[in-house]
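Q: Could you write out the predicted structure for this multi-component system? I'm mainly interested in how the pieces pack against one another.
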Amino acid sequence: MLKAVRKGAKMYVIDPRRTTSAQWADVWLGLDVGTDIILANAMGREIIAAGLTNARFIEHATSGFEAYKKFVEKFTLERAERETGVPAEVIRQTAHAYARAEHAELCWTLGITEHHNAVDNVLALINLALLTGHVGRYASGINPLRGQNNVQGGGDMGALPDRLPGFQHVENDELRGKFERAWGAKIDPKRGLRLSEMFDAMERGELTALYVMGENPVDSEADRHRARKLLGGLGFMVVQDMFYTETAALADVILPAAAGWCESEGTVTSSERRVQRVRAAVPPPPGVRDDVEIIFDLARRLGHDWGKPNSEGLWNELRQLSPIHGGMSYRRLEELGGIQWPCYDETHPGEIYLHGRLWATPLIGPRAPFSAVEFAPPKDALDAEYPMRLTTGRRLDSYNTGVQSGRYSSPLRQEEALELCPEDGARYNVREGEKVRVSSRRGSVIAPVRFDSGLRPGLAFLTFHAHDQVATNDLTIDAIDPKSGTAEFKATAIRIEKCQEN
Amino acid sequence: MSESAQAPSPLIPLPRGPVPQAPARARAMIEIKMDGRTVSVPEGSTIIDAARQLGIDIPTLCFLESLTPVNVCRICVVELEGSRTLVPACSRKAEPGMVIQTDSERVRLSRRMVLEFLASSVNVSTAPMFAEYMKRYGARPERFGASPATVAQMPKIDNDLYVRDYAKCILCYKCVEACGTDAQNTFAIAVAGRGFSAHIATEYDVPLPDSACVYCGNCIGVCPTGALMFKSEYDLRLAGQWNESRQTRTDTICPYCGVGCDLTVHAQDGKIVRVTSPVDHSVTHGNLCIKGRFGWQFVEIQPAPKKS
């Protein structure tokens, strides 16, 4: 992004915190946590009112424009200023700049998706891309930036409750039948449960056995008390992981797994849909085995001998079953330094962007729909008892629950602390380093205070990198987006009290 | 136009569209003569690009494909017909009709001088290409006498990730560029001082942990002499255990975020000793962040189970 800024691109950063990215931006829109839909809808209204839509694209490739136009009428710039905290003129400028740009991209991370209305947030942004035609063209588009090296690949390979590999829906009889024939086995024709739904099923006593691979839900789930209680109450839990995590500590069986990126062979898929080879550089420690070997052994014990695992063989089986991966032989992946799906056959170069079909004449496939998305504030409302907004996030040198990143000596790493703006520090009469009790409607933790002038009064920040220091997810709310299953990590109502022991 | 905004069904795969193309700009070809041979390169190419096309090896120190040329080391100079001075091949663009000598006596003398000045004042023992260049050009740094002025000094060890041994620094500026506008945009280091006192410094020469450094290590990735070195490598060398003949290099992908940076894992006797990234990879051109470059130690270390 800075490369683009250096070449003259304008950067608008929309973030409650004045982050390092915001400091590089031409304009920073410091909106209130959870008001993204108001901002997006107001931008949409302004783009329409100023006559800056791409009328040809809307006519050619979208549906529902008139309904959208009518719906966003109530999202005036004045209302947006009142409810987001961003000056109306700045919203207007941003809307105009986005609509007038020859090429523009909307990029986002968890600030959009870790909300109880995550999908609605995304739909509100898609509306803007459809209004302006900033989609399906080179250097224009909508781009969720992935936070993990293979979170894209996991979904692509069918680690989703309703999809088989290659995003083929399990409830489509024809697609499921293809897999059943190839595997010689019946597949449940109904979608499975999302992670958040699994916790509800545990609560109802319907889910009693769990096999956890490479995840640490005891620390990573919102409302950690509930997560720990439910996982601890399972009849049986297997944890397959390279670390002895807090979750592994609750397991009945632990299967020590090799490091996928340097102790085994295979592929991962990056944020830009690029499938890339990972290779074994070192042998795993004694007693530790490759994930696939463990699964093959498990299958053998269950009466299915799949032979000896071979990563290229497994990949070629996937290529047979998933059309979007069909052309990605190991040889081509090496030669091209990775290929972006879809790549249907060995003459296909892969695709550097998606949705180009929307510009084809005549239009290929269905129209892209506008969505009228209503605003709904964060579930954990502020009141006199819990007057501060806590938002959570990551730090540069750390990663998720810290089991992986906590083991190198980073000169940047500081003790986990509740970050406040200096004004709030004065308001609560606390100095940097002093300890405060932070309480939410679910739990409370003690944390030292650190000042960050990038925060605004009323906004506090914590990470969940070091739960042994500050158990941030004791505070967060597991208000789940019904459409995506994501919890609202970004918006917790808290109260701050100075500790007596200071 | 339909007014009912009906979302496409997730059950039905979307049809294939046209294969997207990145816009390609057609570039005119330029013909030049090099060492008596004719070569044709796209407009905007440098002399070094043309040389590589002919398989001519021009030595470089301060040049790297991913950085803006700064023309400071002068080892890549070539003789250009009609030019009073030698010209740097790394940055001079090819122009139609150029006639170039890449290995004339004047060129060889100039390169020899550069190598002698550097090798007499700087510790080049861990600069992989130096010995070969010195042999190729017959450089004799010892001709400046037994005690020439040097930049000898103690290595700066102020963090656990990398060591800065400026006794090995040839002031090629690559680290400054990688820290600045060419990659990281952090600007933790710059060249301070003048003449022989010029040196790479943080602001007010503060230790790294007090500087703006974010430990991406992109400076280490571009350092041509080993002045910037992974602490893991430095410690092994100090203990006399660094042995590249027992090392393997394996390309894989970073285990952290979704960018997909290519990593080259250097392992000695089955243990990771350092992680680098190939400059020619399309994803990040050799640039990494602190996690990718230094965050691999979890593979080696398994602390005792934590009590909860």
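A: Regarding packing and overall arrangement: The first helix of chain B runs from residue 47 to 53.
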